Amino acid sequence: MSMSAILEDCLRNKGSRYEIVHHPYSHSSMETAAAAHIPGDRLAKTVLFEDEHGYIAAVLPSTYAVKLSELWSKTGRRLTLAREVDLRELFKDCEYGALPPVCTAYGMTTYLDESLASQPDVYFEAGDHEELVHMESDQFLALMDRAERARFGRRMQGRTI
């Protein structure tokens, strides 16, 4: 598989400047950062949550975990992790676990953790487990302009790749 068609459309429609970074196959965001030789704080991961009202996406650095209480407070919803079977249905143009952050393009409310806005550049999944999109922070924030910015992440201990 290659770049998600929906992501490719978003990048083209925004006139985004980016490069593709190839890396050995990886299973997790921390593995991806190590395989691509990039700082984990600059690798954006996408985590999907759900409740009876639908799905939301949380985008934060790979070195962070979602503080669910903060997300509940921000959204006013009692969210839980989305089920794997739902992810496969929602992101048909992506491999499982390689979700790009442009979830608004998939019809989902998206929250972007403020910690990513302070990075000079950002990497994120292109839709498979062997390619990342790399762009300057201003380009990433322009791409994510429909996402709501908030603080809902906390740094995981010992995860500073």
Task: Draw up the topology in text.
Blueprint: H1 5-14, E1 19-22, H2 29-36, E2 43-51, E3 54-61, E4 64-66, H3 68-75, E5 80-81, H4 84-90, E6 109-113, H5 114-117, E7 121-125, E8 131-136, H6 137-143, E9 148-150, E10 153-155
Parallel strand pairs: 2-7, 3-6, 6-9
Antiparallel strand pairs: 1-8, 2-3, 2-5, 4-10, 7-8
Domain YbaK/aminoacyl-tRNA synthetase-associated: 23-141
GO molecular function, one term: aminoacyl-tRNA deacylase activity
Protein name: YbaK/EbsC family protein
Structure description:
This protein has about 160 residues and is α/β, with parallel strands linked by helices. The protein has one domain: YbaK protein. About 25% of the residues lie in helices and about 30% in strands. It contains 6 helices and 10 strands. The chain has helices at about 5-15, 30-35, 70-75, 85-90, 115, 135-145; strands at about 20, 45-50, 55-60, 65, 80, 110-115, 120-125, 130-135, 150, 155. The strands form 2 sheets. Strands 1, 2, 3, 5, 6, 7, 8 and 9 form an 8-stranded mixed sheet that branches. Strands 4-10 form a two-stranded antiparallel ribbon. A hairpin with a 5-residue loop joins strand 7 and strand 8. The chain is globular and about 35 Å long. The two termini are about 25 Å apart. The mean pLDDT is about 90.
